[in-house]
Amino acid sequence: MGRFEKIQIFVRIVDAGSISRAAQQLHMTKSSVSKALSSLEQDLGVKLLARTTRSQSLTDSGEGFYQHAQRILPEVDALFADTEAGDTAVKGH
Predict the structure, then answer these.
(1) Cβ contacts of residue 13 below 8 Å, gap of 6+?
(2) DSSP secondary structure code for residue 57 in this structure
(3) pTM of the predicted model, to two decimals?
């Protein structure tokens, strides 16, 4: 799984309020969503969410990462959509 997909999953976890709800929304297993989050945290070398059996909350690092991800994900989605539609053709000088 690529970093981009892991970031999307992380944002969905935060927006949904739990790994279980994010898994349902993404049509993934809870285990797969949890593994994606753990893998992203390992890639970054920080904990993004403080998790207990009953709750989760963003760490300071997680809050900053979430805010930044919310800003860039729509831009990346638009980039893919434009490219797939052929709207970003390379132009010569």
Answers:
(1) 19, 22, 33, 37, 49, 56
(2) E
(3) 0.84
Structure tokens at 13: 């976890």
User: Does the 3-84 domain belong in CATH 3.40.1170.20?
Assistant: no
Check: CB of residue 50 under 8 Å from CB of residue 15: no
pLDDT above 60: residue 37: yes
Distance separating alpha carbons of residues 9 and 90, to the nearest angstrom: 31
Q: What 8-state DSSP symbol labels residue 54?
A: S
DSSP 53: S
Contact 13, 22 (CB under 8 A): yes
The domain limits of the chain are 3-84
pLDDT 10s digits, 51-88: 888 889 999 999 999 999 999 999 988 888 888 877 65
Q: How far apart are CA 24 and CA 45, in angstroms?
A: 27
